[in-house]
């Protein structure tokens, strides 16, 4: 269900990419705006549109979205909505970072364009990095820039989880199947973890129901295939969210959270996309991979929704 591309496809792609002259790689362009609001100490980043993106899918298209964050801390990451099957997406979304002007010069803005893929890790198409010290904030800026090859973010990866969502409106039943996780971050001295998954059905920041999977011992790539159902009436399905936390079981101490995601109509990026795909396909299980995020980032998101 959550299979990757076949090995043949991958080796074909490798052959093709070897033949291309490297300097010819055009990754497309991104139009953005930057503005600093001196009254409330905020940097306002507008992601306007992208053009001439390379086709990342077999069908000759891409499903682009943009992640926006400030280095060095990376704590607050924003994502635009995913735009289906287009190489010229119009985003028109703005994101606000609270940062004192005195600290702005030491920061670097990163805007990375990704290709959304339901069945595997999302590929970075390219990014733009702008040292804030190079920008004159006495006026607002709007410009196009070429995307550069994006560096891998492997060091901070927490792992990925694959799950399916299914909603049956007539029965008011939401079913979440936790399929598998992979490349989980090592939490134990021995270099492995004992991962299990906790599910919380939530509304307005409150936990309504709680469920959890079995514990898988000594693995960073656990396979679960465990199904959980929640009763959610039709008028509530737009308002609830499902928080999914992968934890490392510890007999003695506290169970550490490896990472977390929040699914729901009011979520952002790929988590929201998965939820909307589920609602658009009643009674059909829709499976998708998600990259885990730091637990504190998701908890902050949840408390904002109260």
TrEMBL record:
<keyword id="KW-0106">Calcium</keyword>
<keyword id="KW-1133">Transmembrane helix</keyword>
<comment type="similarity">
    <text>Belongs to the synaptotagmin family.</text>
</comment>
<keyword id="KW-0479">Metal-binding</keyword>
<keyword id="KW-0325">Glycoprotein</keyword>
<dbReference type="GO" id="GO:0005886">
    <property type="term" value="C:plasma membrane"/>
</dbReference>
<dbReference type="GO" id="GO:0005544">
    <property type="term" value="F:calcium-dependent phospholipid binding"/>
</dbReference>
<dbReference type="InterPro" id="IPR035892">
    <property type="entry name" value="C2_domain_sf"/>
</dbReference>
<dbReference type="GO" id="GO:0030672">
    <property type="term" value="C:synaptic vesicle membrane"/>
</dbReference>
<feature type="domain" description="C2">
    <location>
        <begin position="157"/>
        <end position="290"/>
    </location>
</feature>
<feature type="region of interest" description="Disordered">
    <location>
        <begin position="1"/>
        <end position="23"/>
    </location>
</feature>
<dbReference type="GO" id="GO:0001786">
    <property type="term" value="F:phosphatidylserine binding"/>
</dbReference>
<dbReference type="GO" id="GO:0031045">
    <property type="term" value="C:dense core granule"/>
</dbReference>
<dbReference type="InterPro" id="IPR000008">
    <property type="entry name" value="C2_dom"/>
</dbReference>
<keyword id="KW-0472">Membrane</keyword>
<dbReference type="Pfam" id="PF00168">
    <property type="entry name" value="C2"/>
</dbReference>
<dbReference type="GO" id="GO:0048791">
    <property type="term" value="P:calcium ion-regulated exocytosis of neurotransmitter"/>
</dbReference>
<keyword id="KW-0677">Repeat</keyword>
<dbReference type="GO" id="GO:0030276">
    <property type="term" value="F:clathrin binding"/>
</dbReference>
<feature type="compositionally biased region" description="Basic and acidic residues">
    <location>
        <begin position="1"/>
        <end position="15"/>
    </location>
</feature>
<dbReference type="GO" id="GO:0048488">
    <property type="term" value="P:synaptic vesicle endocytosis"/>
</dbReference>
<dbReference type="InterPro" id="IPR001565">
    <property type="entry name" value="Synaptotagmin"/>
</dbReference>
<feature type="domain" description="C2">
    <location>
        <begin position="26"/>
        <end position="145"/>
    </location>
</feature>
<dbReference type="GO" id="GO:0000149">
    <property type="term" value="F:SNARE binding"/>
</dbReference>
<dbReference type="GO" id="GO:0005509">
    <property type="term" value="F:calcium ion binding"/>
</dbReference>
<keyword id="KW-0968">Cytoplasmic vesicle</keyword>
<dbReference type="GO" id="GO:0042584">
    <property type="term" value="C:chromaffin granule membrane"/>
</dbReference>
<dbReference type="GO" id="GO:0030424">
    <property type="term" value="C:axon"/>
</dbReference>
<keyword id="KW-0812">Transmembrane</keyword>
<comment type="function">
    <text>May have a regulatory role in the membrane interactions during trafficking of synaptic vesicles at the active zone of the synapse. It binds acidic phospholipids with a specificity that requires the presence of both an acidic head group and a diacyl backbone.</text>
</comment>
<keyword id="KW-0770">Synapse</keyword>
<protein>
    <recommendedName>
        <fullName>Synaptotagmin</fullName>
    </recommendedName>
</protein>
